[in-house]
Amino acid sequence: MEKEKLRTRTLHHDRRLGTEAGAVHQPIHSSAEFAYSSAQALIDVFQGGPGYTYARQNTPTVASLEHHVNMVEQGVGTICFASGMAALTAVFLTLLKNGDQVISSRYLFGNTNSVFQTLENFGIEVVLVDACSVEQVEKAWQPNTRMVFAESIANPGTQIAHLDEIGSLCQSREVPFVLDNTLSTAYLAPGKQFQAALVVNSLSKIMAGHGNVLGGAVTDTGCYDWAQYPNIFAPYRTGDPAQWALSQIRKKGLRDMGAALSGEAAHKIAIGLETLELRLRQANQSALRLARFLQDHAGVQKVFYPGLGAHPQHERAKAYFNGHYGTLLSFELCADIDLQRFLNRLQVIILSTHLGDSRSLILPVAQTIYHEMGPEMRALMNIDERLLRLSIGLECVEDLENDLHQALVFAQGV
Ligand SMILES: *Cc1c(COP(=O)(O)O)cnc(C)c1O
Questions:
Q1: Which of 28, 155, 370, 384 has a 20 to 30 Å separation from 67 between CA atoms?
Q2: What values do phi and psi take at 81, rounded to 5?
Q3: pLDDT-above-90 percentage for the chain
Q4: pTM passes above 0.90
């Protein structure tokens, strides 16, 4: 029989992993500690044997979600965290050292940009480049380059870095490429497709999909040989090198830093994951239609969406993502549209941060999530003062179109 499609495997994941009494969902384990019947059994677990020590490192509920996310990303192992930021921070703080250099795309989620500033304070140099061209990454390369970082589709500008070429470059120079796959998810393209060593996903967004939970994950794709990496510490250089980075991230990044995912959150995320493909397909379709609608609207100056022919990386997006272009778009209002009046008039679309929810969400970027970074950095990142970020949900697309239209008309020329 042909291998089942991912959607089928996702729906049956929990049940097939094994449950009591025929339950189709994995149970929510609430125990913080795990008891053993002999001293030797307890010692074995602490020395790397199978089992659980303490919920800060893992629980059966979280382990089930890790297995699930790993299946979606086609990795060799996955670790879950309390949020996407916890996952990203764990990767940076456990795999980088004082004196190292990181090359990152400068089109970044604002909080990731803020973490990079923190890393600079610890003596890690972060060089931000226009990663839409691999030449810019290559130009920034130094003997101490230890990591290259990019987002699959950049939040909020929707730039698409030269992911396949960056992956090849990193592979040839034996440096791990870390990809934040949050905005596309593995359904558009697993990180492995671009030879990313590690893939980070915020599970709070499209993966869970309902705006009711936080979570994050790091997946090792198996593309990178960690035996070549100088920053794997001695205790983690044992056994299969494919697991070295994950062991270090779980111990240093999860056990020591403590941003563990709760069982309740893991359960909610697992339920959301079951409908990932259906939700994404619907929202992708709506996003393309709304992008075209906004592009043609007299009140809109510019639309950023990879599905539009005018997007600078449209052809690349088409090749990378199988004809899907994501569920996030951003647009700049014309000068004669009053920004606040427009936003206040919306009836369906919610004024809120967050993205990848089943409800559509909008926010003015420069005044909110990019406020702290200041005008200079915003200019470098192409963030106009009139830029709005719109995350497309699962509402009927006609209702979203009508909502945008009535608000644009209302806010024009006043
Ligand atoms: C939201 C987001 C994150 C952070 O995820 P949280 O779960 O909210 O911490 C990281 N990267 C990108 C691209 C995001 O959009």
A1: 155
A2: -135, 170
A3: 94
A4: yes
